[in-house]
Automatic annotation (TrEMBL), chain A:
Entry superkingdom: Eukaryota
Location of the protein in the cell: Mitochondrion
NCBIfam families named in the record: L29
GO BP term, pick one: mitochondrial translation
Native organism: Glycine soja (Wild soybean)
Keywords: Mitochondrion, Ribonucleoprotein, Ribosomal protein
UniProt cross-references to InterPro entries, sorted A to Z: MRP-L47_sf, Ribosomal_uL29, Ribosomal_uL29_mit, Ribosomal_uL29_sf
One Pfam family hit: MRP-L47
GO cellular component terms listed in the entry, alphabetical order: mitochondrial large ribosomal subunit
Full protein name: Large ribosomal subunit protein uL29m
From TrEMBL, chain B:
Molecular function, one GO term: mRNA binding
Organism: Glycine max (Soybean)
Keyword set, alphabetical order: Ribonucleoprotein, Ribosomal protein
Basic and acidic residues: bias regions: 121-140
Protein name per the record: Large ribosomal subunit protein uL23m
Cited InterPro entries: Nucleotide-bd_a/b_plait_sf, Ribosomal_uL23-like, Ribosomal_uL23/eL15/eS24_sf
Region named Disordered: 114-176
Encoding gene (name): LOC100800404
Family listed: Belongs to the universal ribosomal protein uL23 family.
GO biological process, one term: mitochondrial translation
GO cellular component, one term: mitochondrial large ribosomal subunit
Superkingdom in the source lineage: Eukaryota
Length: 142, 176
């Protein structure tokens, strides 16, 4: 009974995930959106006279006000940004060129660490022990 | 890593992906990535499909060892990484005007131009080196003009020359 339920759950989750992936890919191809361009910075133009000013990292007190879904979305936005910056740094360093504004990567990394910290706080305060354990396991895997 | 919170599957992926520079910017069938060694093919495929929306056909991976350098007794080691070659179902293309690509292309062109100009200079220097060292001297010297000699083998303009002994010589000649 338990085995069949678990198996059914995993299969359902896998099916839902694959369906989600398929819809994402289909939507991307339909819109003509190029996923490769997300690894590059399109808006940056170094010829401008004014230097480019970047924002600060997210504070934990700001993240505590966000819902679970908001934190989930923000995590992926930050992950994409981090991958883009690391790609940029690696490409420029390979050609012995200077990576501009290198302080952006620590900002993103700190923001991600703070999201993790806020999620850990919520997992500790969770009254249901089973749910709390699940949350902790998920956070430790990050 | 998937986790079941309530009645839904929550997945917080934390997979660092660095895209390597593609050889061509049009009709890209395969992309090369650098990730952490613990990443699996399935994880890479899932992240690329769900997070970025790639249409992935297959993933091939190979573990690469970071470069090791020894400075005296100190071993400087770059971290190991996993390289992944992702084959796409539909070919993609990117514009060369995107930020790092444009800068890298400009830099390559500038380096090529410098190399070409230095080659030209070297060639000129080489051709100059082939000349004999006396050639320039000869060009610098005035051309040889044969002078008309008067009697006693002296040039004709010697009497008009303003030297201290010219007057003496003329005087001695007059006394004779």
């Amino acid at each position: 009974m338990f085995l069949s339920r678990t198996l059914g759950r995993t299969l359902f989750a896998a099916a839902a995930r694959s369906k989600q992936y398929a819809t994402t890919a289909a939507a991307a191809s339909r819109e003509g959106h190029n996923p490769l361009q997300e690894f590059f910075e399109a808006d940056r133009s170094p010829e401008d006279d004014k230097p480019v000013v970047y924002g600060r990292s997210w504070k934990a007190c700001e993240l505590r006000l966000k819902s679970w879904d908001d934190l989930h979305k923000l995590w992926y936005v930050l992950l994409k940004e981090k991958n883009m910056l690391m790609t940029q740094r690696q490409m420029l360093n390979a050609q012995n060129l200077r990576f501009p504004n290198p302080e952006r990567i620590p900002k993103v990394r700190k923001s991600m660490c703070r999201i993790k910290h806020v999620l850990t706080e919520r997992a500790i305060e969770e009254p249901d022990p089973r749910r709390s354990a699940e949350m902790k396991r998920m956070i430790n895997a990050l | 890593m998937g986790s079941r919170l309530g009645r839904r599957v929550v997945q917080f992926a934390n997979l660092p992906i660095k895209l390597l520079m593609p050889n061509s910017f049009t009709n890209i069938h395969e992309i090369a990535l650098k990730t952490i060694p613990s990443a699996t093919k399935i994880e890479i495929k899932r992240v690329l499909q769900s997070l970025y929306g790639f249409d992935v056909d297959k993933v091939r991976t190979l573990n690469m060892e970071g470069k090791k350098k020894k400075r005296g007794g100190l071993l400087i080691a770059k971290p190991d990484y996993k390289k992944a070659y992702v084959t796409l179902k539909t070919p993609l293309s990117i514009s060369p005007d995107l930020y790092p690509i444009r800068i890298i292309d400009e830099d390559k062109k500038r380096i090529n131009k410098q190399a070409k100009s230095s080659l030209v200079q070297d060639h000129e220097a080489h051709t100059e080196a082939h000349h004999h060292w006396l050639h320039d001297r000869k060009e610098a010297q005035p051309p040889f003009r044969p002078q008309k000699h008067g009697r006693l083998g002296r040039p004709e303009g010697a009497s008009n020359a303003k030297f201290p002994w010219s007057s003496m010589r003329s005087a001695s000649g007059s006394t004779r």
